[in-house]
Amino acid sequence: AQSVTQLGSHVSVSEGALVLLRCNYSSSVPPYLFWYVQYPNQGLQLLLKYTSAATLVKGINDFEAEFKKSETSFHLTKPSAHMSDAAEYFCAGVSGGSYIPTFGRGTSLIVHP
Amino acid sequence: DAGVIQSPRHEVTEMGQEVTLRCKPISGHNSLFWYRQTMMRGLELLIYFNNNVPIDDSGMPEDRFSAKMPNASFSTLKIQPSEPRDSAVYFCASSPQGPTEAFFGQGTRLTVV
């Protein structure tokens, strides 16, 4: 079964600094991987997805993630943090044999002025 | 498309009362998921429907919880009787056929007092 692990429940950065949120997956088959963002009192919104095409995936709001099979990782990055990026971020995976998204525990991104 | 629609957005009820949460998935989507989100346990899958049929209900906590999907455009999650530990945000999500991303509703915040 697919599982994902997010390292760090909280990440704090200064405005303008690089954002790096970590996600590792565990799967015996190539997974489909996703990053979602959740703003307060809202549902989850898709940021980007990896579906075995390009290993570097670009998403909305200048976020991107790189699929690294050798490291079983799918870390999310953004070159320059904005105050509006403060939110909860979830990594999720779906195995080819299952249609059920499995979510990590989430990482809260805090952006300081 | 209006996206996944959940009602009500907020529900406050007394312990022992029946609670019914409602969901209208995106038209044409074959899969429907109910998730529960709490600080302690993160996002938990409660039940997964495919083509209106329950496929995986292993996440349903106990017999007090039940879910139905009478047709492709409507699903309910019922808790009877409700308990304070059921207080959480409940999300409904839908997705097209295949291992792809899920689209989330805005959630129902349930408080049982």
Overview of this structure, please?
The complex is a heterodimer of chains A (113) and B (113). Chain A has 113 residues and is an all-beta fold. Chain A contains no helices and eleven strands. Chain A has strands at residues 3-7, 10-14, 19-26, 32-38, 44-50, 56-58, 64-68, 73-78, 87-94, 102-103, 107-112. In chain A, strands 2, 4, 5, 9, 10 and 11 form a six-stranded mixed beta sheet that branches. A five-stranded antiparallel beta sheet of chain A has the order 1-3-8-7-6, with no helix packed on it. Chain B has 113 residues and is mostly beta strands. Chain B is 0% helix and 55% strand. In chain B, strands 2, 4, 5, 6, 9, 10 and 11 form a seven-stranded mixed beta sheet that branches. A four-stranded antiparallel beta sheet of chain B has the order 1-3-8-7, with no helix packed on it. In chain B, strand 5 (42-50) and strand 6 form a beta hairpin. Chain B starts with a strand and ends with a strand. The mean pLDDT of chain B is 95. Classes of the chains: A mainly beta (113), B mainly beta (113).
> Quick one: how many beta strands of chain A?
11
Rg from alpha-carbon coordinates of chain B: 13 Å
Mean pLDDT of chain A: 91
- Biggest β-sheet of chain A, characterized? 6 strands, mixed
> Gap between N and C termini of chain A, in Å?
41 Å
Quote the beta fraction of chain B. Answer: over 45%
Total DSSP helices of chain B: 0
Largest interface: A-B, 25 and 25 residues
What would you call the quaternary organization? heterodimer
How widely separated are the two ends of chain B?
Answer: 36 Å
Helix content of chain A: under 10%
How would you sum up the global shape of chain A?
globular
Overall structural class of chain B, as computed from helix and strand content, comes to: mainly beta
Strand content of chain A: over 45%
* Percent of residues in helices of chain B: under 10%
Say how many strands of chain B there are: 11
Number of helices of chain A: 0
N to C succession of SSEs of chain A: EEEEEEEEEEE
Low-pLDDT regions of chain A: none
